[in-house]
Amino acid sequence: MRNEQLTQKQRTFAHAWIKNGGNDYQAAIEAGYSPATAKNARKNILEKHGVKEYIAELQAKTDKENGYDIMSLADIQRRRSMIATGALQDSFGFTPDFPDQLKAMNDLEKALTVQAKEEEEKKAREEALRNKTYHMDLDIIPDVFHPMIRDVRNHGHTEYVLPGGRGSGKSSTIPNIITELMRNNHDIHCLVVRKVYNTVKDSVFAKTKWAITKQEFSEKDYKYTSSPYEITMRDTGQKIFFRGADDKDKIKSIAPEFGYIGIVWFEELDQFAGPEEIRNIEQSAIRGGDSAWIFKSFNPPKSANNWANQYLEVPKDNRMIVRSTYLDVPKEWLGQPFIDEAEHLKAIRPEAYEHEYLGIANGNGGAVFEYVEVREITDEEIAQMDRIYQGVDWGWYPDKYAFTRTYYDTARETIYLIDEHYVNKRSNEQTADWVKKKGYNDYAIICDSAEPKSVEDYRDLGLVAQPAIKGPGSVEYGMKWLQRRKIVIDPRRTPYAYKEITTYEYDRDKDGNIISGYPDRDNHAIDSLRYAYNRVIMRRGENA
């Protein structure tokens, strides 16, 4: 607040505070404040309304008038020079004696020598930085990527696409390459993009920090900010910008203080809408400059018709493709639990293992759910199911109300659909009555949180109802979690869920290419199934 906006009492308080040496209470009393207000003067007066800033101005003015203002380095050097030349006189008109002049000259010489040396060393460091070629330690990079790294160094291609299964090292290799490129090209910056910005922190941002610490640099060599997520090289000022495609304006608004964005990394390429969205981001980000490197990494979608898989089949002269799997990575880097998980999936669902860990697009087309077993589920099986998951997708008309009751075999990663309620034009009281008559109030029901009133109705009616936890990307994460599990369906018990799950397919464009994203139709039972496992997914931080 500007000084002229202070009240007279506040001004009086400030002057009294200066005069008495900083006694809050006494200053408040002198200014006419009540004893109660004066008792807490620091909180009530000093820290508010710009009074503190006014006191600082008064103190600086007082110090200057009394000759107490702090001298700058230039002031000190100037005073030494006056003493050395005899130009400084005291109040009686006497100049410094020769020994004092000589001492001032010696002190000045030392100071100037140190200053000159520091400037020379700074210039030498900057020059060395410009001339030095930095190469990362290839011992921290799987061998499968070494030819690509050599190609990047020679700028053999502009675009590098890295499809690979889980644990293949692609998402760890790219940030190391980015760091090397920026160390050797001091006018370029980097943009890292994911489909949803909310996923940046625990993925690409964390991976880049890890890559920095694995090299010869420490975190002190870089500045990390989180709003927005950025990493700055302290010695050059170059930046790595992390953004989400869900806010394209923030990508367009990126304006480096110098140079240009010469590196772009698209992580989880298949999550983007398609080639057009990728091109738009590239064109928005890469402007100016003579050189550019573009990296694209992803786990290949199951369907060979997915746009990201088909993207690899289109010949492109300036593109290099590097495929990798966890088998290309030293086992000690992955850890035994990772290996055990892969072998477990290989044993129970070989086709899922091939897709997830080997990156093979072995799907049969556009079906969203590939791991579906249609068979009878016996009463004897159900009697042994000891942990039930239930979900509700609210509806009236034409949208259906959908309730699903399921069992999850954790060891085999298999979901069993036990029962359902799939109806139109039923009140919350009517559907709750059905649940209670079936005896399904034995476990919690996770409901679509878009209707909090309906959730409250269920609670008032005696059901254990909880709202689903949502956020950016939650639908996609939930769907991918379901896609990775085997789903056993008995059409006799859950006919509507059977129809939805077995016929639910990706949309296609006019050319027959699969469009990324999940169709929002004929999926009420699917949504209720997703809600049923909402807490499991969120608790484990599953992102498929």
What does this structure look like?
It is a single chain. With 544 residues, the protein is of the alpha/beta class. It has three domains: 3-65, Terminase, small subunit, N-terminal DNA-binding domain, HTH motif (Arc Repressor Mutant, subunit A); 138-333, P-loop containing nucleotide triphosphate hydrolases (Rossmann fold, 3-Layer(aba) Sandwich), CATH 3.40.50; 372-540, 2-Layer Sandwich (Nucleotidyltransferase, domain 5), CATH 3.30.420. The protein has helices at residues 8-19, 24-30, 35-39, 41-46, 51-65, 73-85, 98-131, 146-153, 170-184, 201-214, 248-252, 275-285, 307-313, 331-334, 336-348, 350-358, 379-383, 428-437, 452-460, 474-483, 495-503, 524-532, 534-540, and strands at residues 159-163, 188-194, 222-226, 229-233, 239-244, 260-267, 293-298, 319-321, 372-374, 388-393, 401-409, 414-423, 445-447, 465-467, 486-489. The strands form two sheets. Strands 3-4-5-2-6-7-1-8 form an eight-stranded mixed sheet, sandwiched between helices. The protein has a seven-stranded mixed sheet with strand order 9-15-12-11-10-13-14, sandwiched between helices. Strand 11 and strand 12 form a beta hairpin. Helix 1 packs across helix 2, helix 1 (8-19) packs across helix 5 and helix 15 (336-348) packs across helix 16 (350-358).
